[in-house]
Write a structure and sequence with these properties.
28% helix, alpha+beta, 333 residues, 5-stranded mixed beta sheet, SseB_N
Length: 333
């Protein structure tokens, strides 16, 4: 980890690079970059149907404690998933695989709205299964979710079925539901014109596999409400997290991206998921880095002032003090 370029940079400008150790130069074949060139499936918009996936035992996601309050008439209490909504709004008329992946990275935080046939609050109170909206294309079924209530209302206007209600659910619950069934993928905001996306099942499976689950703890904390304790909480969460760095070619060979803040501080760029690296579109590759490897880099490179997490945004920088739990992982001596 000895090769650092020294030009002054800000976190949102072109990064600098450092040469990785052998442990950093892990196999990059698992990164989802190749999927960016795949075709995007088309799902025709027709009348929504309701029910469960074709697997008889499949159940809708377990409602959160607040689900009943967010359902039906009180659904407005749950705010839109702004990051996801804005990513969908940027889609071109004919999205590429990379466009869909840009949406997918903002799917890894917050909550989604599900459309329920009937009064979700009453169904929950009665302990009934929730008939959730789905779309069909040929012999395939797609789960449906919404970034906000406006997108859900657009579906109601499109199909005229006013006997439905909304239920907000954590993204983790929705993804578990989709992948536990036989759905071919997840359709987001289906009646929102070009601001809609189809996330194929294969991409969802790969995203979850690379993240080690559906919780996405770092993305959730970085994207959530900021408090004076947020940086400290993220520092603790990094100890058990799956992390990636961005590796590209420099004149000296492979290098790991770093950023230079306006005040001159040098920050190693760390990513919560390979999709975050791909979103920067730099031509670099996501490479796994364990928390222990991160600790070793910080110990051997005292000139690094901290880390910059998910520079494509939302991002956060952590100081060495914030990273104390990670530094404690470094071997003694």
């Amino acid at each position: 980890m000895a090769l650092f370029s020294r030009g002054k940079r800000t976190p949102d400008e072109q990064p600098e690079s450092v040469a990785p150790s052998d442990a950093d130069a892990a196999d990059t074949d698992a990164a989802p970059g190749a999927a960016a060139d795949q075709s995007v499936p088309h799902v025709g918009i027709s009348l929504s149907t309701y029910g469960r996936a074709t697997t008889p035992a499949q159940q809708p996601p377990s409602p959160s404690p607040q689900a009943a309050e967010h359902a039906a008439g009180s659904g407005a209490q749950a705010s839109d998933n702004v990051l996801l909504r804005d990513a969908l709004a940027k889609l071109p008329a004919e999205p590429t695989g990379r466009d869909v992946m840009a949406v997918a990275r903002q799917l890894l935080q917050g909550h989604l709205f599900l459309r329920v046939k009937g009064d979700a609050r009453a169904l929950l109170a009665a302990g009934e299964n929730l008939p959730l909206a789905m779309l069909t294309a040929g012999d395939k079924q797609f789960a449906v979710a919404y970034s906000g209530l406006g997108a859900l209302r657009a579906s109601v206007l499109a199909d005229g079925d006013t006997g439905t209600s909304a239920m907000a659910q954590p993204v983790a619950s929705v993804l578990r539901y989709v992948l536990a069934g036989t759905y071919a993928g997840l359709v987001l905001d289906p009646a929102s014109g070009q601001s809609r996306a189809v996330i194929p099942r294969e991409l969802l499976e790969r995203i979850v596999e690379e993240a080690g689950g559906t919780e996405f703890p770092i993305k959730r904390l970085v994207s959530g409400e900021r408090t004076p304790q947020t940086a400290t909480e993220i520092g603790r969460a990094l100890v058990d997290a799956k992390l990636w760095v961005s590796v590209g070619q420099t004149e000296q060979g492979p290098g790991i991206s770093e950023a230079r803040a306006n005040d001159g501080k040098r920050l190693l760029e760390i990513f919560s998921h390979p999709l975050e690296v791909i979103a920067l579109d730099r031509g670099t590759q996501p490479v796994p880095m364990t928390p222990a490897q991160l600790a070793a880099v910080l110990i051997t490179e005292p000139g690094l002032d901290g880390v910059l997490i998910d520079p494509a945004g939302p991002w956060i920088s952590l100081t060495r003090d914030n990273l104390a739990p990670v530094l404690a992982l470094a071997p003694e001596g």
